[in-house]
Amino acid sequence: MNARLSCLLLIAVVLPLSPSPAAEPRRPNVVFILTDNHGPWTLGCYGNREIRTPRIDRLAGQGIRFTRCFSSNAVCSPTRATYLTGLIPSQHGVHCYLAAGRAQIGPEAYSTIGEFDSLGEILAEAGYVCGLSGKWHLGDNLHPQEGFTYWITKPHGHTTTFYDAPVIENGAIRKEPAYQTDFWTDHAVRFIRQHKERPFFLLLAYNGPYGLGGSLLRPARNRHAEFYADKPLESFPRNPPHPWLHNNRQYINNPQAMRRYAAEVSGIDDGVGRVLDTLDELGLDKNTVVVFTADQGLAGGHNRMWGMGDHSRPLHTFDSTIHIPLIWRHAAAIAPGKTSDILVSNYDFFPTLLGYLGLTDRIPERPESPGRDYSPVLRGETIDWSNVVFYEFENSRMIRTDRWKYTIRHNPRGPDELYDLENDPGEETNLIGRGEHAAVAQQLAERLDAFFTRYADPRYDLYRGGRSKSHLLTRRVQ
Questions:
Q1: How far is CA 314 from CA 78, 321, 407, 430, in A?
Q2: Which structural domain, as residue segments, surrounds residue 395?
Q3: pLDDT digit string (tens) for 118-135?
Q4: Is there a single domain that holds both residue 331 and residue 416?
Q5: What is the pTM of this model?
């Protein structure tokens, strides 16, 4: 042994080993549960005493429930694009639901949010494995999109049946005989088990309860069908249809439609329970953020409507179709049994989740999201927050505050609307044109215009001749 080697060995024996750098804490997993056409009024934790939702109610009791969350649009594709980009329709260009074929499958298929840095891509770059189980409805459905590697979805957006329904698995379309709500849950559980050793982001996008289509008049076939078969379900209002109601009049005051919808809500509750049980079993419950919400609400007779804002002429903005549930649970940091009454929108979800995960620096600077980060509220902190949300659906734009809702419409015109929600929560008396409220209407109009002037992209701003990536229910605004 030479002298140099002897010296090195002596140093190694005498000197302590340098401490290894501490391993970076594992970021929490994220399970994002998104339902379809689902109002909070159907859930026990929001006051319903007829529809059975014990697992969702338990989730709410273990975290924080937001009482006033609203969607920024009336239909599926635009709101899903907003959740994943933090942008509104006049920024991402998806103004209405994507019709079958075209962007979704076939030679012209493409991701309608592909031009933006979306949530799956950002989380994948941050080390998450990303999985989708359920409805995509944002284009190029046959192929994994936007950072997702686990990919099982639907070829289109609409739902005609929950049995023998088409699904996309391994890049091919086939029919799945099982109850589709259970099928999405099966894959959600499989994804969690497969990726329990690393941070994961699961988008569990149910296509239920889906209170639309001819299947609503056929009896439910899931395990809850018998329970609801004779229930009066008085939580569904009974009133004559609104004169604006363009579709779905056959469901108003119809016990069959009510019972079917209730059974599908309870079917989703079963799936939520299975996901929560899987997280508990694997010891992942404390380090997993679970968010439960919906793409948009659904009127089940509320405002004398059935469906969403696209089912009336003119297109409407009643709260019953844009009010959505929102629950966050994270045992490691969110105190249980809390509620928040701040006004939030689904465009706030994107910056809030990234802020909560410590990834604020990953939020794109352009386009500038109108979303605000309410993650401090999740941790029990008080924040400076203005209670205002904005909405757009084709030719309609709306601003909603604590007290007021103001809606304007462009070509083809419907009546503009102003409601005093404090004294008229049912939005029955339109105050537009009444002199004593002219100043309020003017102030709200200025705030509405300032918002869209700041955020709307001229390419996709329908009010200024922009285009839509989807078809439009109304004529294009020139």
A1: 19, 14, 11, 14
A2: 389-464
A3: 999 999 999 999 999 999
A4: no
A5: 0.94
